[in-house]
């Protein structure tokens, strides 16, 4: 019998995300080997609190030294703007499993919080397998609008005291 607690939900979400690993790692391999526009100085991946019923809520932003998103029209460089990761995936939790998710919610499990934390752990593992440690730009993943980010080079959480990533950018 299934246990409707936080641990059970985490394990279930991990099993669903594991099926998407080849697709994410392939997309990340393209990113980690890309040639970025010179104005891009930071890769900021954000996890949005949208849940997993309607896709994978991950987006990578290409930021400049002013902490603004870089937009360009130069085809010699990687994408001209932010990147929706696994945009083709329309659902992680299929409609046939929504009742199962509701049972966890009814048991008091913070499903969105667990999904966001599990997505970050999963992304970090995929990033490393895709060669992310070789990216020369600073790279982070965080919850959208959070004051803490996971540094993908140092492999640790870092606090942001002054606003989104401003202290991570070169002087």
Automatic annotation (TrEMBL):
Query: What is the name of the protein in this document?
Result: Uncharacterized protein
Q: What is the source species? A: Dictyobacter vulcani
Taxonomically, what lineage is the organism? Bacteria, Bacillati, Chloroflexota, Ktedonobacteria, Ktedonobacterales
